[in-house]
């Protein structure tokens, strides 16, 4: 008699390895999404701090470089902050091709301010209107940070 594995034993082992590898790959993808979301949150807070320092120095927020398109897919996105040494370089979102960082300057007026946004891939809970702790300055359906449920993470800079 020969010693070895039967075909059924080999198929069972292969099936177990397949199930385990699919579980590992699924959790790895979730970890990657969470890592990109953490990067977005961190970079938006850095941009927010740089905007507040800029405002403290000049009394206004930097103007939008390209009116009508306020996002980091423009070459000089927030270049004024880079020129002042408040940011090391023009920020680029980890998922820039689909959801770049965006910046909107409210302009001069009685309530000066600015808004920076990024998109989080993990998505908010279906029971909330956007992400808790973020600003929602507009009404539903109007823009990036409306009151509807969406994946935009928004930080306002009021003064």
Main beta-sheet annotation: 3 strands, antiparallel
Strand arrangement across the biggest beta sheet: 1-2-3
Q: What number of structural domains do the residues give?
A: 1
* Overall mean pLDDT: 79
Briefly note the structural class of the backbone.
alpha+beta
SSE series: HHEEE
Strand content: 5-15%
User: What integer value in Å does the Rg equal?
Assistant: 23 Å
Write down how many β-strands occur, each being a DSSP E stretch of 2 or more residues: 3
Helical run tally: 2
Low-confidence region ranges:
none
Coarse shape: elongated
Q: Give the CA-CA distance, first to last residue.
A: 86 Å
> Which percent range fits the helix content?
25-40%
A few lines on this structure:
With 159 residues, the protein is α+β, with helices and mostly antiparallel strands.
Give the topology.
Elements: H1 7-58, H2 79-83, E1 102-105, E2 114-119, E3 152-156
Antiparallel strand pairs: 1-2, 2-3
Task: Kindly describe this structure.
With 159 residues, the protein is an alpha+beta fold. It has one domain. Helices cover 36% and strands 9% of the residues. The protein has helices spanning 7-58, 79-83, and strands at 102-105, 114-119, 152-156. It has a three-stranded antiparallel beta sheet with strand order 1-2-3, covered by helices on one side. Strand 1 (102-105) and strand 2 (114-119) form a beta hairpin.
